[in-house]
Amino acid sequence: MTPAFRFTPPDTASIASDVERAFAEDLGRGDATASLLPADAIASAQLTCREDTVIAGIPWFDACMHKLDPAARIDWHVSDGDRATPGSIICDIRGNARAVVSAERSALNFLQMLSGTATTTAAYVAAVAGTNVRVLDTRKTVPGLRLAQKYAVRCGGGHNHRIGLYDAILVKENHIIAAGSIAAAALAARQLHPTLLLEVEVENLDELQQALDAGVDRIMLDNFTLPVMREAVIQTAGRVALEISGNVDLTTIGDYARTGVDFISVGALTKNVRAVDLSLRLTIK
């Protein structure tokens, strides 16, 4: 049984592709150890959480199990985005024993990694509580799993920055150098891609003013100190959304949020991956 998701996951084709790649590297020509089990044996299993966790990745877990046993029954006691506490049982599984043991590792890899991303995101979101700041992810994701990790960020209460290089424009130092100025880069961006969000990264207050004059949609303050962040907020006066990037961690994000900016992007949400501790125990009949 699949829970009703409060967060929209990637489409089923994307999830199926992730699972295919995972099985290709793990199962290869077949699970040699699982073949020791009787072909018609049935396994019952419970998945237990061993630490405070925000759950994310249920669609991938289900897809792994159902790929090898379409009739497997999975009864979830949580949904993606829910918190689970140590010792809580988050799902019960019943299915073909060979299928369950063969799918176990890949299914857990997805659920543990994505829950880790969601749990980390939730910690950063909690650190900016009481402000209007939105915590954003970045493109610093595990190759091939960007949509999965960005979904996990949403499960943790965060928000997605651009998905890739195609759905928004972020003008950085090298683009500005190549174009000749912030104004020239912004003009070219508007002419080539008039419907895309246009963001410019700036390194000082002079560049901030240039970006304001260019009429961009968002400005990224790159590695600004706290006092200069506050000056930037005053200088901008709400005309354009401001985003902070650089030197952001759980010890700094609260102070950054209280400067009055709109967004804070955090590469650590998806780059510094730590799998949460989950345990799957089986009984085979």
How would you sum up this structure, described in words?
The structure is a single chain. α9 (253-257) links the parallel β10 and β11 (263-265). By secondary structure, this protein is of the alpha/beta class. It starts with 11 loop residues before the first helix and ends with a strand. It is elongated. Helix content is 40%, strand content 19%. The model has no long low-confidence stretch (mean pLDDT 96).
SSE map:
Elements: H1 12-26, E1 42-49, E2 53-54, H2 58-68, E3 73-76, E4 83-84, E5 89-96, H3 97-127, E6 134-136, H4 146-155, E7 169-171, H5 173-179, H6 182-192, E8 198-202, H7 205-213, E9 218-222, H8 226-236, E10 241-245, H9 253-257, E11 263-265, H10 268-271, E12 278-284
Parallel strand pairs: 6-11, 7-8, 8-9, 9-10, 10-11
Antiparallel strand pairs: 1-5, 1-12, 2-4, 3-5
Helix pairs in contact: 1-2, 1-3, 2-3, 3-4, 5-6, 7-8
Described by the principal axes of the CA atoms, the overall outline is elongated
Percent in strands: 15-25%
What's the Cα radius of gyration?
23 Å
N- to C-terminal distance? 21 Å
How many β-strands, per DSSP?
12
Which structural category fits the helices and strands?
alpha/beta
**Topology as H/E string?**
HEEHEEEHEHEHHEHEHEHEHE
Mean residue pLDDT: 96
The helicity comes to 40-55%
Largest sheet: 6 strands, parallel
Across the major sheet, the strand order is 6-11-10-9-8-7
Notable features of this structure?
six-stranded parallel beta sheet, 10 helices, four-stranded antiparallel beta sheet, alpha/beta, 12 strands, 285 residues
